[in-house]
Amino acid sequence: MSEVSEKVVEKKSLVARLEEEGDVAADYLEALLDIADLDGDIDIDVENDRASLAIAGGKLGHLVGERGEVLDALQELTRLAVQTSLGERSRLMLDIDNFRSDKKEELTKLAHEVAQEVKSSGESVKLRPMNAFERKVIHDTIQEIGLTSESEGEDPNRCVVVLPE
Question: 102-163 has which CATH code?
C-alpha cells in the first residue's frame, strides 16, 4: 500500500472512531437530558480531529453556568462516559446553546486586539487567567497572526502571555 493510501485509510479510521465517540457521547447526553427532564437537540460533528457535540434548544443556560464551569464539568463527565465505553481517552468538545462558539468569537477578537498592542508596543502582554479551552483559542489565533504566546502559572490561575516578535 502506498504512503498516500495509508494516510487516507488512517484518516478514514480516525473519522470513524470520532463518529463512534460522538454517538456514544450523544447517547450519554440524551440519557442525562431525559433524567433532568430537559429538551434539547444534539448535533454531532467531527472538527479539528475531535468529536464535537452541540446541544441547542430548550432552557439550557443552567447547564452552561455563569462562566461555563457547568459546561466544563458536563464535558468531562461525557469524556469519561466515552472512555469507559470505548476504552480510549476522548478529546471531544461539548457546546451548549452556542456558549463555546460565542466565546471563541469573543476570544479571537481579544487575541487580535492584544496582538496589535504587542506589535505596536514591543512589550509582552499577560492576559487574565483562562481555562484550557480559552487559552487554546488565544494560542491558535496568536499563532495565525504570526506572533508567539505561552501559558504560565497553575490552574485555575493559568494565563496566556503574548510575546513580541
Answer: 3.30.1370.50
Residue 53 burial by Cβ neighbours in a 10 Å radius (0-12, 13-18, 19+): buried
Instruction: Please state the domain extents for the chain.
Output: 3-97, 102-163
pTM score of the predicted model:
0.80
pLDDT tens digit sequence for 12-69:
688 999 999 999 999 999 999 999 999 999 999 998 889 999 999 878 989 999 888 8
Verify cis geometry, omega within 30 degrees of 0, for the bond prior to 156. yes
The answer to whether 127 and 150 have CB atoms below 8 angstroms apart is no
CATH class of 3-97: alpha beta
Contact 124, 163 (CB under 8 A): yes
Q: Three-state DSSP class for 36?
A: coil
How does 97-117 read in b/e, with b if 16+ C-beta sit within 10 Å?
bebbeebbeebeebbeebbee
